[in-house]
């Protein structure tokens, strides 16, 4: 089952009978984002494999898979809002807030960890709902709303936790962060892929997912077709909050602690991977497209580049510089690719 | 007037992907003349204006200035050659002063040079005097009235030493007395040797001030640069709509025995409508005629629940309807709305044919947990896409790549698939070719024959008279009256125009 949902290739017709059914769409696999990303991943894997020591070690492959899992969740969290033509700058802040609630529930309230996880997910979705509601009600761009809520959520969290970490996390939960299955694979990576599959099914084969895509692509047309677009946009933000929470909980499992600074000041450390993964994956910032598979590949590329560049003993700031350049390059290439497609369609 | 033409277009063709907007149009403009450019919506007027002003490059044909062939690569080159245009929509920067707006084109060419405001204002004063407009050049444009901004645009065009000045619907938002002031200015410009092109739907104005006329119909010349001497209103109408197109295809349909499907009683809306009352029966086509800005689209959106209804009530099948959202209108009351602006309101252009045709029925087709398969959607919409003969390479084709006519068919098909009982169709034939237009007209009649109540909104008079059973006339957010349509163009168009101009009050014309 293809993981990417793209309406332009969603409905290939069966065998041609009528004029309507004739002419299958041209195969565009070689100019698709996914193909380009796989190519880049292979190239960089070869480069890092030959140029560095330890890139292919068991330890490195394991941590790489684990980091990829977190980046996939961060990327998907942003993608669900990019689908609406918006942005969610508060992904990091929401994730950390939910993770801290999880830590509080475990360490202070002594709740069983599955309950703590559900509480965290509920808070993540609720904070997302705050964003969505504010965006729909005010009509302001989500950039402004989430810029504000990023600071508000993070500030309130720091006030409530006094910026202290919760380190008393039960082993049953933390174990997920360190265990290995199927050789060197982290279960977190499998979880991330399962979530991605579920999202692909949502966009590909459910009314809700399609309404999200239609709302994102052209809100007024969707509204006039009977879609309650305000509700849909709020749901997209809730989904984003829940996915950000999953990413943060993965970090809690990995670190064995819920730490206020685990996504950097205001959660800003997440922003670059959050944008890079969907944009590399082929998301359109104007909305209406949900490249789930591409976002996963984008997250994998970002994780691999980070790991490889660090192994090449480049300073962490150079990695940031490099990823920033990659974001610009991705936007530029995507623009070129789309004008090429537009040209081909008209010709 | 024996002088040589200052501007000529010869055999201009303009082909857009899928649509031939202009098919060999000619036009010649004499200095010191006011030339009327007429045509129905979609006849090619605006395309021709864009070709003349350098926005579009003609696919073939030639453009001559003072007898020499010229090519305009962009609007700037056309401006430099002395071709000015005052567009229908305002193109001034509201917060800038009158003087800054008038000289904007000169100022942007020299970004680093300091601006001598005293000189700027003095020069602006000169151009304002030229058209006898008494406003302070330092005032921001946002403080001016609509008529004043219109005149500032003319002053701006003059300051660029335009020898040819195109005015696109200059009186659309002016009161009659403001229009008269404008006309006296236009006459003076004509006498000073400027060649003016006057585009308007108001034939009375054209008869009053124009001396020559070019009429476009379906992208071709219905008449080319003829003298207006001896022409009357009927002659112009005949050129515009063609002799044999008068109310083509109209047939009497008796629906008086059918139950009323939808009725509006004293409806007021947040958009500003007051006392709107009309009803439409099952199987009836009710025309809602009004000029641009009369509040037609807003009324449709209010009925659909997109704009708030603030007073009165909407009855569906005799019951008061509570429509709080478009979803209510569609799913609870079986209403549908084919938007006039299919690119922004009607279709999701970047999505596939299948996604657009199925969007209204998704909810109905969904299985457990909202599961929805392409196969189910395809099964639901394909019969309608085939019935409407939508031409697309596949259902996966992105709608943006289809022609206007096919896009319009899809925006109708989605409502047919939804099985609506009441369909509001807003300007069904904007930007589509004649053949598709005839086809859509046939489809609308068949739809009504099968019992759908149709509310047809159009400013295309022949279209209205060939389709509607009854015509309600909307002007200034009020229903001015109703006429029973008998399919006779002259009588009907006269009756409708009378209602718009309030000459006949609210009296209905006997059928």
UniProtKB/TrEMBL annotation, chain A:
Quaternary data: The complex is composed of two ATP-binding proteins (LsrA), two transmembrane proteins (LsrC and LsrD) and a solute-binding protein (LsrB).
Keywords associated with the record: Cell inner membrane, Cell membrane, Membrane, Transmembrane, Transmembrane helix, Transport
Listed transmembrane segments: 35-56, 76-106, 113-134, 140-160, 181-203, 232-253, 292-311, 317-334
Organism of this sequence: Acidisoma cellulosilyticum
CDD domains to which the protein is assigned, alphabetical: TM_PBP1_transp_AraH_like
Compartment(s) of residence: Cell membrane
Listed GO CC annotations: plasma membrane
UniProt protein name: Autoinducer 2 import system permease protein LsrC
Function, in words: Part of the ABC transporter complex LsrABCD involved in autoinducer 2 (AI-2) import. Probably responsible for the translocation of the substrate across the membrane.
Entries under PANTHER family matching the protein: ABC TRANSPORTER PERMEASE PROTEIN YPHD-RELATED-RELATED, AUTOINDUCER 2 IMPORT SYSTEM PERMEASE PROTEIN LSRC
InterPro entries the record matches: ABC_transp_permease
Gene Ontology MF annotations: transmembrane transporter activity
Pfam families cross-referenced by the UniProt entry: BPD_transp_2
Membrane topology (UniProt): Multi-pass membrane protein
TrEMBL record, chain B:
Domain ABC transporter, first and last residues per copy: 7-243, 250-501
Membrane topology annotation: Peripheral membrane protein
Subcellular location as annotated: Cell membrane
Keyword Glycoprotein in record: no
Keyword entries, A-Z: ATP-binding, Cell membrane, Membrane, Nucleotide-binding, Repeat, Sugar transport, Translocase, Transport
Membrane spanning stretches: none
Coarse class of the protein's main subcellular location: membrane
PROSITE patterns membership: ABC_TRANSPORTER_1, ABC_TRANSPORTER_2
GO function terms (MF aspect): ATP binding; ATP hydrolysis activity
Leader sequence segment: none
Name this protein carries in UniProt: Sugar ABC transporter ATP-binding protein
Organism annotation: Acidisoma cellulosilyticum
């Amino acid at each position: 089952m293809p993981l990417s949902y793209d309406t332009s290739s969603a409905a290939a017709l069966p065998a041609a009978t009528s004029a309507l059914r004739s002419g299958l769409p041209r195969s565009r696999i070689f100019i698709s984002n996914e193909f380009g990303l796989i190519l880049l991943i292979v190239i960089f894997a070869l480069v890092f494999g030959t140029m560095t020591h330890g890139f292919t070690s068991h330890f490195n492959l394991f941590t790489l898979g684990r980091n990829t899992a977190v980046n996939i969740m961060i990327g998907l969290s942003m993608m669900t809002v990019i689908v609406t033509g918006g942005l969610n700058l508060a992904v990091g802040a929401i994730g950390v807030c939910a993770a801290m609630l999880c830590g509080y529930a475990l360490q202070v309230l002594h709740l069983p960890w599955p309950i703590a996880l559900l509480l965290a997910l509920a808070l993540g979705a609720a904070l997302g709902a705050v964003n969505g509601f504010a965006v729909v009600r005010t009509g302001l761009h989500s950039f402004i709303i989430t810029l504000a809520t990023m600071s508000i959520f993070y500030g309130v969290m720091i006030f409530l936790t006094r910026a202290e970490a919760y380190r008393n996390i039960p082993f049953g939960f933390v174990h997920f962060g360190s265990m290995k299955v199927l050789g060197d694979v982290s279960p977190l990576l499998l979880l991330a892929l399962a979530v991605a599959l579920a999202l692909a099914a949502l966009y590909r084969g459910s009314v809700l997912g399609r309404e999200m895509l239609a709302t994102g692509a052209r809100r007024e047309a969707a509204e006039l077709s009977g879609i309650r677009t305000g509700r849909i946009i709020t749901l997209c933000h809730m989904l984003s909050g829940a996915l950000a929470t999953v990413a943060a909980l993965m970090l809690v499992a990995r670190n064995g602690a819920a730490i206020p600074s685990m996504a950097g000041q205001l959660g800003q450390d997440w922003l670059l991977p959050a944008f890079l993964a969907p944009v590399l994956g082929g998301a359109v910032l104007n909305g209406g497209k949900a490249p789930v598979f591409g976002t996963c590949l984008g997250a994998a590329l970002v994780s691999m580049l980070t790991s490889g560049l660090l192994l090449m003993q480049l300073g962490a700031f150079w990695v940031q510089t490099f990823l920033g350049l990659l974001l610009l390059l991705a936007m530029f290439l995507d623009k070129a690719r789309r004008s090429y497609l537009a040209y081909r369609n008209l010709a | 007037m024996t002088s040589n033409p200052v501007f000529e277009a010869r055999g201009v063709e303009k082909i857009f992907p899928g649509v031939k907007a202009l098919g060999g149009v000619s036009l010649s403009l004499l200095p010191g003349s006011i030339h009327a450019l007429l045509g129905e919506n979609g006849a090619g007027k605006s395309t021709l204006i864009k070709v003349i002003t350098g926005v579009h490059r003609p696919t073939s044909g030639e453009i001559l200035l003072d007898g020499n062939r010229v090519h305009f690569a962009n609007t700037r080159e056309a401006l430099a050659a002395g071709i000015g245009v005052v567009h229908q929509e305002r193109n001034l920067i509201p917060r800038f002063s009158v003087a800054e707006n008038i000289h904007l084109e000169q100022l942007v060419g020299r970004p680093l040079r300091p601006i001598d405001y005293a000189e700027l204002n003095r020069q602006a004063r000169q151009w304002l005097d030229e058209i006898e407009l008494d406003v302070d050049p330092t005032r921001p444009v946002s403080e001016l009235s609509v008529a004043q901004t219109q005149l500032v645009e003319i002053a701006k065009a003059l300051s660029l030493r335009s020898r040819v000045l195109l005015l696109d619907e200059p009186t659309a938002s002016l009161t009659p007395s403001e229009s008269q002031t404008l006309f006296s200015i236009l006459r003076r410009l004509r006498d000073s040797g400027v060649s003016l092109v006057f585009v308007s739907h108001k034939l009375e104005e054209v008869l009053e001030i124009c001396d020559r006329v070019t009429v476009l119909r379906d992208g071709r010349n219905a008449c080319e640069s003829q003298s207006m001497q001896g022409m009357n209103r009927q002659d112009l109408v005949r050129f515009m709509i063609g002799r044999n197109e008068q109310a083509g295809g109209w047939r009497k349909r008796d629906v008086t025995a059918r139950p009323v499907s939808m009725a509006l009683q004293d409806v007021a809306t947040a958009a500003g409508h007051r006392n709107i009352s009309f009803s439409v029966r099952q199987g009836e086509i009710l025309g809602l005629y009004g000029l641009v800005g009369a509040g037609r689209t807003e009324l449709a959106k209010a009925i659909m629940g997109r704009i708030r209804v603030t007073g009165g009530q909407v009855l569906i099948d005799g019951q008061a309807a509570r429509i709080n959202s478009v979803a209510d209108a569609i799913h609870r009351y079986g209403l549908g709305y084919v938007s006039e602006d299919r690119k922004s309101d009607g279709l999701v252009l970047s999505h596939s044919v299948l996604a657009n045709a199925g969007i209204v029925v998704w909810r109905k087709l969904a299985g457990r947990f909202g599961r929805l398969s392409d196969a189910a959607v395809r099964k639901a919409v394909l019969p309608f896409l085939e019935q409407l003969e939508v031409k697309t390479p596949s259902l996966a084709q992105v709608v943006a790549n289809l022609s206007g006519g096919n896009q319009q068919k899809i925006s109708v098909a989605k409502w047919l698939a939804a099985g609506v009982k009441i369909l509001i169709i807003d300007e069904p034939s904007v930007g589509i070719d004649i053949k598709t237009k005839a086809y859509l007209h046939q489809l609308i009649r068949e739809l009504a024959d099968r019992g759908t109540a149709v509310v047809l909104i159009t400013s295309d008079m022949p279209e209205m008279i060939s389709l509607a059973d009854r015509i309600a006339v909307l002007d200034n957010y009020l229903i001015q009256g109703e006429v029973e349509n008998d399919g006779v163009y002259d009588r009907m168009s006269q009756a409708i125009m009378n209602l718009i101009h309030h000459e006949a009050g609210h009296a209905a014309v006997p059928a």
